[in-house]
Amino acid sequence: MKIKTKSGFECNINERRLNDWRYIKAAAKMNEAIKNQDESKAAEVLTFAVPFLLGEDGETALMSFIEDDDGVVDTVKLVAEYIEITQIAGEKAKKSQSSSSS
Length: 102
What we know:
This protein is mainly alpha-helical. The chain is built from 3 helices and 2 strands, in the order ββααα.
């Protein structure tokens, strides 16, 4: 599925990965980290979730998209993009499931 965030980042996600148990566990940990404002835990989850969901090429593209003029990838921007990507992917997956069950 093709995703485009408000900031303009575009990527492709294998919809099956959204239902992979390892990813579901990571998403639950991310939600907990966000709820508890635990930046360390969020960063830990991202090291698995981003490459798993986007693939190596997608992760590289995201890092290039986010990095500033000094080559720094701001973690806050990364988390924001990741959250938006997963929200869009979830919405598209629900639409896909509901249209296929009709």
